[in-house]
Write a structure and sequence with these properties.
single chain, alpha+beta, Jelly Rolls, 8-stranded antiparallel beta sheet, 5-stranded antiparallel beta sheet, 3 helices, globular
Length: 232
């Protein structure tokens, strides 16, 4: 073997090993929160999550006994339709939304999501709809991208720009909520910076605290790297 062939072979081996090391490092980082954040999803099971019971308005009217019974049924449904597959939260398109078992007030959130063609979902903040997730090519979307506050009436509901990756690829949200103000970045681009309105009680401001929900919308959904940082 000539010296040139030896060098070429050695470089190829080094590049292959480096690529493998990067792949392994990427896998190890899955669902591991960056500094200052906590993982809402541990990558292994549904610990820290619960099924959906009604909405903030209807839950407030329930007695403790009624709520406990309804939660028991909702949790059973949750386990039937939300699964963890290779470190990813997967929803089969049936059942209801997945909810944090803790309420949050002001926070920063990171979450990766992926949908299929014609996919439609969202992320409820303080139990309220919603930071929109969908396929921009659907009739409902009409070319509008994800990340808008879809249910707003008085304040902007559409994203500033369309920043979605192609359907079937992973996307990343950065969401910040302080008071009623919500800022959303999608894949590093600012798409929303406005007020989230109270969908359930239009005559009231958004609730001071509430659960975070990964919305069911009748189609297969994927989430991973779900992190949160609580703010004062």
């Amino acid at each position: 073997m000539t010296t040139l062939k030896r060098v070429t072979t050695l470089l190829t081996m080094i590049m292959t090993i480096s690529a493998l090391n990067l792949a392994v490092a990427g896998e190890q980082k899955l669902n591991v929160p960056p500094k200052g954040y906590k993982a809402l999803f541990n990558g292994k099971d549904l610990s820290g999550w619960k099924g959906l019971v009604g909405n903030p308005k209807t839950r407030a009217k329930m007695s403790p006994e009624e709520l406990a019974e309804a939660q028991k049924k909702a949790d059973q449904s949750m386990r039937e339709h939300w699964k963890v597959v290779d470190g990813v939260l997967v929803f089969d398109g049936k059942g209801q939304s997945l909810c944090t078992d803790k309420d949050y007030k002001n926070f920063e959130m990171l979450v990766d999501w992926k949908i299929k063609k014609d996919g439609d979902s969202g992320i409820y903040l303080r139990g309220s709809p919603q930071v929109q997730i969908w396929d921009p090519a659907t009739k409902a979307a009409k070319g509008v991208g994800s990340g808008g506050l879809y249910n707003n009436k008085k304040n902007p509901s559409k994203p500033l720009v369309t920043a979605d990756n192609p359907v079937g690829e992973w996307n990343t949200f950065y969401i910040k909520m302080v008071g009623d103000k919500v800022t959303v970045k999608l894949n590093g681009k600012l798409v929303t910076d406005t007020v989230l309105e109270n969908y359930w009680e239009r005559d009231k401001p958004i609730y001071e605290a509430g659960q975070i929900e990964l919305q069911n919308h009748g189609n297969t959904l994927y989430f991973r790297n779900v992190f949160i940082k609580e703010l004062d």
